[in-house]
Amino acid sequence: MHSHSGPSINRRALLIGGTALAASASLVRAGRAAPAEPNVVELTAAAGRVPIVGAPYPRTDVWCYGDRVPGPEIRVRQGERVRVIVRNDLPEETTVHWHGIRVPNSMDGVPGLTQPPIKPGESFTYEFTPPDAGTFWYHPHSDSLRQLGRGMAGAFIVEEPTAVSVDRDLVWMLSDWRLTSEAQIAAGFGNAMEAAMSGRVGNTVTLNGAVPDEVPMRAGERIRLRLVNTSLARIMSLRFEGHRPVIVAIDGQPCDPHEPERGRILLGPAMRVDLVIDMQGEPGRRYRVIDDFYEGLSYWLAKFVYEDKPPLRAHHLEPSPSLPRNPLPEPDLAAAERHELRLQGGMMGGGMMGMGGMQGMSHGASWAINGTSMTGDGHANMPPLLTLRLGRSYVLTIRNETAWWHPMHLHGYSFRVLTRNGTAVPHRRWADTVLVPPRDTVEVAFVADNPGDWMMHCHVTNHQVSGMMTVLRVA
């Protein structure tokens, strides 16, 4: 049974004033972030005010990159080196984590563990060459709960060397907010009861920084739709009325093209899914995109609105082609070393009362992995749970012993998702964040080819900062 601890939402994901008001979301493909010189991007983290809800509500006070939510979209070609200069104009320390990109450890953005935090008024330069094409994103890894929850996130798109044949390439940055009746971000980020349950689920969902409404479409066109869930805790289950989306990539990694099970795209926090959709609706009609993950709390996220024009092309296109594979090393399953990670704690299942006997518990911990909790966002001298040998293959069995869902993210790597509850996972799926339902067991495999100390944690941010985090050392 799905659980939901935040306020309910209606079709436009807004109950803050009792009336849902829409603001148009910009869905056109954005160009590359304007660099100061070729391959150089400048980002400034600072306070800002943005029109999340729209008139007559006031602008929302946020923290953001480049005075906008989401932050500037960064686009580079696969294998193209990028330098990102991040200036911190916030009143506290920050860092930037390049989620899903297989960067060198010193560029991973974990304060204390991989770099010194960026102090107010200071800058830090990240420089790396993305090895994989795909849909990635960036966000803070310092005071993650507040900084991400206040709006600090942006898309990082790595384009294939040869352009994919679609009519439009769209990015949907999906975010979840808890707003007051004045459209301001509600307090209470550190709620301990909430942290021990489903996390901080909000009452307002935005698409590309605004409460969405209608998305213009042309019959007959083929779109690539990149979905990115930047929420602190909200899990989404999206279905597209009257359409048959094809999944072509998960977490930036190409998979065998396939239609989603039961027509629903399951998207936990931090996860990404690339879809190819042939727009075969009727000219002049509207079709809803519905999120119905939480039982009894279904709402429509947006509507495809077809122009009243003849179809762009008179015939159906060939099936969606496979995207070119990225240069991921294939794990040797026969020779792989195996380890088990047990996810523990939380309310309603070996919960907070049952956590008292676990080792390594610190103040404020509600969760643990293999009996040990690491709280916060990362710090110097975090002891590794496992030490992995460089170049060796590994299989991790992730066993969820709790009553809650956990999107488990491994920094610095993509892994092959092998099995779920003993059944092979189809479609050659790779990921960097795997959603593990209550009491489920998932097996993943990878080659430990990227040296360093790497965080692994639940991307329900409340869970991460209250204990469900560990370090894997590759040496």
Explained architecture:
By secondary structure, the protein is mainly beta. The chain folds into three domains: 40-161, Cupredoxins -  blue copper proteins (Immunoglobulin-like, Sandwich), CATH 2.60.40.420; 169-306, Immunoglobulin-like; 337-474, Cupredoxins -  blue copper proteins (Immunoglobulin-like, Sandwich). The chain has three helices and 33 strands. The protein has helices at residues 144-149, 192-195, 461-465, and strands at 40-50, 60-65, 71-77, 82-88, 97-99, 123-128, 134-139, 154-159, 168-177, 204-207, 214-217, 222-229, 236-240, 246-250, 253-258, 265-267, 272-278, 286-291, 299-306, 337-345, 367-369, 374-375, 386-388, 393-400, 406-410, 415-420, 423-424, 430-431, 433-436, 441-447, 452-458, 466-467, 469-474. Strands 20, 21, 24, 26, 27, 28 and 30 form a seven-stranded mixed sheet that branches. The longest helix is centred in the first third of the chain and has 6 residues, at 144-149. This is Copper oxidase. GO terms for molecular function: copper ion binding; oxidoreductase activity. Keywords: Metal-binding, Oxidoreductase, Signal. Residues 58-161, 169-287, 375-474 form the Plastocyanin-like domain. It comes from Bradyrhizobium retamae.
